Amino acid sequence: MNANRLWLIGGVVVAALVAVLAWVVGIHPQLQQASAADEQKISAQSQLQQTELQLGQLKKDYASIDALKAQLATLQQSVPGTQKVTDFFRQVAQQSGAANVSVTSITVGEPTAYAPTAAGGSAPASTPAPTASASAPASGGTATPAPSATPTPNATSVAVAPPVSTDPLINNANFVMLPVSLSATGDTAAVSAFTSAVQNQGPRLFLVNKITLAQNASAPDTGTKSSTPTAASPAETATLSGFIYVLVGNS
């Protein structure tokens, strides 16, 4: 092997080493950086699209900011951030005056923490099916076949209430119930109007869960009743029991 061939082989080897070194040190890292830059660009474009959508929604919300503020103010009056019992008393006084009834008593009990009620159903009860039996034949007689058993369902279906809808933001740490009991006296139409007003007109939410109607002493004594009054009923006293609510921090 002459010197020229050795130089040629050495040059090829050196060129190959230089090419590999250039790939490892220079070209490959640059390609990786370019690929990472492309991925970052795609991610940035996706985030930009999400931001543009959020910005568009915020612009729409801001266009109706006055209506949202009015709705918030109404909700804060319905379920305030503090007890505000005096304001509720004023509301009841105004509604009783408008309905032409006299509020004879009103009490607000101690606050209790809210506890959602879980819906559930009882397990179906199993009903065993009767079994067939055969009478033993008498001596010298023939066997009398017993009637076959009538099939019956093995279980009785029981209706189950739907699940209670809850909000994790409303819990026993920030939602409080205050029991309220009030009595109002007036004619049947006035008492009915007052009952509807305290439940539906607000502004403070008063959820009535029990109504007891009793006729006044001037009317024939028929005892206490819990049915809805009619126009023909005499003057009476309505006792309403229910709850007002406080959402701590809702102010």
From TrEMBL:
Residues 117-160 are annotated as: Disordered. It comes from the Bacteria. This is Pilus assembly protein PilO.
